[in-house]
């Protein structure tokens, strides 16, 4: 069954120097539990598509349905990871992960155990009481992913989460991500510049192109998982 249904979606950013058409006639169905990557050149609308699905930007035309509901603001069960981590430097790593509970108005005390478990799973056991500025870029992004996963979101949106990291750290994170994602029912939409990364991680790769942002190809990946 489709978890995300995007039908003829267009997005126009109004601008005094002429409107910018960021997305044109996007059609994409994503099944529950599927891992889909989006690749394409800078400016082809990848971030815009994610922001629309996150309810951070309204769509201009067409229809977008997530979990059976037309989008009007953020979906009920959403986690999001950005290129630059969004950790607060004056909070410990554990408190940063628990921010997600505060965003969703859930009780922190109910989620402390899960936060610690996630940190452990992502190789950050023992770093609960450290501060973000004490961690490497890769560790900070892992903490950001823990935050996004804290409340067990059905939909995980990642906008080039490793874009700012060096190649070796990226490879490590991809391995971990694959292992963790395997067997979980999370539906994931993942933006990357790297086709290798996309092929390695995904069930399907969506290729976008500019002029203006549209889907030019969708490739099924049928590789054994590591
Ligand atoms: P990508 O993520 O693929 O780099 P974006 O979604 O960021 O692409 O951008 C798609 C197009 O929309 C680009 O032409 C970009 O300049 C434009 N754009 C993005 N955000 C805005 C905005 N807030 N206002 C106006 N134009 C925007
Ligand atoms: P950029 O495209 O400039 O690198 P990001 O992708 O990091 O920016 O963030 C995209 C937008 O989403 C920004 O305007 C930022 O303020 C906003 N944003 C960042 N983190 C969150 C969050 N956790 N929840 C909602 N919005 C966020």
TrEMBL record:
Q: Which terms in the Gene Ontology molecular function aspect does this entry carry?
A: ATP binding; ATP hydrolysis activity
Q: Which residues form the ABC transporter domain?
A: 4-226
Question: What's the superkingdom here?
Answer: Bacteria
The answer on whether this UniProt entry bears the keyword Acetylation reads no
List, alphabetically, the InterPro entries matched. AAA+_ATPase (IPR003593), ABC_transporter-like_ATP-bd (IPR003439), ABC_transporter-like_CS (IPR017871), ABC_transporter_ATP-bind (IPR050166), P-loop_NTPase (IPR027417)
Keyword set for this entry? ATP-binding, Nucleotide-binding, Transport
Family statement drawn from the similarity comment of this UniProt entry: Belongs to the ABC transporter superfamily.
According to UniProt, the name of this protein is ABC transporter ATP-binding protein
Write down the species. Answer: Microbaculum marinum
């Amino acid at each position: 069954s489709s978890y995300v249904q995007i039908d003829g979606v267009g997005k126009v950013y109004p601008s005094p120097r002429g409107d910018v058409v960021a997305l044109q006639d996007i059609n994409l169905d994503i099944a529950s539990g599927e891992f889909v990557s989006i690749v394409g050149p800078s400016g082809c609308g990848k971030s815009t598509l994610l922001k629309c699905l996150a309810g951070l930007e309204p769509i201009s035309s067409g229809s977008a349905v997530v979990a059976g509901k037309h989008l009007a603001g953020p979906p009920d069960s959403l986690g999001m990871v950005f290129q630059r981590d969004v950790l607060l430097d004056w909070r410990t790593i554990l408190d940063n992960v628990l921010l997600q509970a505060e965003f969703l108005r859930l009780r922190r005390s109910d989620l402390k155990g899960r936060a610690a478990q996630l940190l452990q799973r992502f190789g950050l056991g023992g770093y609960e009481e450290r501060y973000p500025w004490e961690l490497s870029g890769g560790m900070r992004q892992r903490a950001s992913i823990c935050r996004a996963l804290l409340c067990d979101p059905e939909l995980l949106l990642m906008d080039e989460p490793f874009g700012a990291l060096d190649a070796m750290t990226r490879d490590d994170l991809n391995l971990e991500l694959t292992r963790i994602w395997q067997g979980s029912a999370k539906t994931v939409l993942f933006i990357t510049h790297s086709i290798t990364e996309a092929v390695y991680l995904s069930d399907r790769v969506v290729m976008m192109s500019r002029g203006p942002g549209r889907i030019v190809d969708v490739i099924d990946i049928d590789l054994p998982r590591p």
